[in-house]
Amino acid sequence: MKAAVLESQPGDLVVADISIDKPGPDEVVLQTAACGLCHSDLHAIDGHLPIPVPAVLGHEAAGIVQAVGADVTELASGDRVVACLSAFCGACRECTAGRTWLCEVRHGLNRGPDEASRLSRDGVGLNQLAGLGGFAEELLVHRNSVVKVPDELPLDRGALLGCAVVTGIGSVFNGAKVAPGSTVAVIGTGGIGLNIVQGAVLAGAERVIAVDLHAEKLELATTFGATDVINASDVDPVEAVIELTSGGVDYSFEAIGLPQTAGQAFQMIRPGRTAYLVGLPAAGATIELPGTQMLMQARGLQGLFMGSNRFKEDIPMLANLYLQGRLKLDELIAGRIGLADVNDGYQRMREGTEARSVVTFE
């Protein structure tokens, strides 16, 4: 089958022929329908997120079950599923406490060094980013990396549920627990930021302020429910938010992953509130905050990983909200591209003017 392989860091993806193994007892084989382009993969491509290479990237995927392992009873051939990198074991301390997104052994759900690789090229094993590797015509993954979704859900839109949507909306619902009538600021209106915006709207926030450097993305944010927009290339975003809200917001979300914007999110909140770091920083990045202000004004900065999701429940719920017309997915997709165009898609992501591109497989 064809797959997009990262051979070195930094480096472009190379479309190559690779081999896929048969499923083990707890594994599932999918025919890939679609896989979204995410900034986390771009960090790996540009060398800001070190991973073992060669590797098949792509983690925002959806497809149709082709085969299941001997112990898999909840899925069958023909089921339509969405994949999520929040794989979980179900038995560790975090899983039994209900925090499956923090599973202590999720990386151990991949095959071990003494087992045959799930994916290989010319006999050499290939790493699967996040245990998935969605930029391939087929996926071989652990059963607790996928969840069944309604047959009516278009899979090019369903793929987005596995990362951008569950992270953005989950950060609002599960992480921050945004209250009705509150004020919210969102820094960065890419795929994740737009879903924070629409999540805040669904939660009943009275005011949702979108902050970005690109006028096109801010205009898109208004279609997702932003009540106010701030172009940070024209004004100081912290001063603008404080002026708009007469003192700051109740919740702020940083959806880019930069130390500078994380500091801005912290400065935008009112005393006694918390700013949330949602965007993935580059490896080794550090954030400096004013300690006196943090203590004496009881302000906080908290990281939220993957929207604190329990994706086996969250993704079907989000799929149904879309099918009911209450969740925007169509508007997230800036373009559908083939696997051969994946590097061009990431270049457009670097330019920062689009929401989400999706690789679709015929």
The level of helicity is 25-40%
**Structural class from helices and strands?**
alpha/beta
CATH H-level homologous superfamily name of the largest domain? Medium-chain alcohol dehydrogenases, catalytic domain
User: What fraction of the residues are assigned to beta strands by DSSP?
Assistant: 25-35%
Instruction: Give the oligomeric state.
Output: single chain
| Overall number of structural domains | 2
Counting DSSP H or I runs of 4 or more residues, the number of helices is 10
**So what's the CATH class of the largest domain?**
Alpha Beta
Number of strands: 20
H/E topology pattern: EEEEHEEEHEEEEEHEHEHEHEHEHEHEHE
What is the typical, i.e. mean, pLDDT? Answer: 96
Say what the CATH topology of the largest domain is: Quinone Oxidoreductase, Chain A, domain 1
Instruction: Tell me about the largest β-sheet.
Output: 7 strands, mixed
Radius of gyration, whole Å: 20 Å
